[in-house]
Write a structure and sequence with these properties.
Elements: E1 2-7, H1 9-12, H2 18-33, E2 37-42, H3 45-57, H4 62-83, H5 96-105, E3 110-111, H6 120-130, E4 135-140, E5 161-162, H7 164-172, H8 186-195, E6 199-203, H9 208-214, E7 221-223
Parallel strand pairs: 1-2, 1-4, 2-3, 4-6, 5-7
Antiparallel strand pairs: 6-7
Uridine 5'-triphosphate binds at residues 8-10, 43-45, 48, 65-66, 69-70, 73, 113-120, 123, 178-179.
Length: 228
């Protein structure tokens, strides 16, 4: 199966911890050993937020803040590359063409961000669409998509299954600004809507849950394409 995984920076690098990154790399290598084709996209996490916060105070504009965020995502991607063995492309592909070429060579591409204005969720969704992936996994710091932000609203309920259109409606209300905190970004949901991809939003803090989802078992939210 061809699987693209968007690994949130807040799950891979909440702090810079070699053991956590190594645990992720082990799971990815296991999926590769099992015969799956894997592409990865890594987020910026708290380090990106810190840089964006400081630069915003210094008067940077939103595009400049996005560029800082992209730099941190690529830094985190390099950390995961360091943990993966020689099946991995040695540098983070900076665009989707290079990532697709790496996949075609049989390497595991580990991308960070690409251009300003969205997050690595959108990068991963576009990579999944471009490479005709069978499954797209958003490994996030929440265990699925909720009716409201569960950290702020105790009444929030988790969805087991959503159509991409329903996901667009939920995410559409959340502000698009550098470092914003939606479970999946709006552009990603719009790409999902047109692509017909099968996607899962799940708790990425335990990397084994990513492997379980590839094998068909998860407790996250399944985004299932609408019948055409
Ligand atoms: P992330 O993809 O990490 O955003 O990009 P996130 O949703 O905050 O994810 P976590 O916390 O890692 O799970 C961090 C920031 O980098 C910029 C945006 O400003 C984003 O908020 N960015 C990232 C881009 O502008 N373009 C990209 O392609 C990727």
């Amino acid at each position: 199966m061809k699987v693209i995984v968007s690994i949130g920076g807040s799950v891979l690098v909440p702090t810079v911890d070699a053991d956590r990154v190594a645990a992720y790399a082990d799971v990815i290598e296991g999926l590769d050993d099992a015969g799956h084709t894997i592409g990865l996209v890594v987020g910026g996490g708290p380090t990106a937020r810190e840089y964006i916060g400081a630069a915003r105070e210094l008067g940077a504009n939103e595009i400049e803040l996005d560029q800082l965020g992209i730099a941190v995502t690529r830094l985190n991607a390099r950390l995961l590359i360091a943990a993966l063995d020689n099946r991995v492309a040695p540098t983070p592909p900076e665009d989707h063409d290079r990532a697709r070429e790496a996949l075609q060579r049989g390497d595991i591409p580990v991308m960070g961000g690409t251009v300003a204005g969205h997050t690595t969720d959108a990068v991963a969704t576009a990579l999944a669409e471009y490479t005709d992936a069978d499954l797209l996994i958003y490994a996030t710091s929440v265990d699925g998509v909720y009716s409201a932000d569960p950290s702020e609203d105790s009444e929030a309920t988790k969805f087991d299954r959503l159509s991409p259109g329903e996901l667009v409606d939920i995410v559409g209300g959340i502000e698009l600004e550098a470092g914003s905190n939606a479970p999946v970004d709006l552009l990603a949901t719009k790409l999902l809507e047109r692509s017909g991809l099968r996607a899962v939003v799940l708790d990425g803090t335990e990397p084994e849950l990513v492997a379980d989802a590839v094998d068909g078992g998860h407790d996250g939210t399944e985004i299932v394409p609408e019948e055409r």
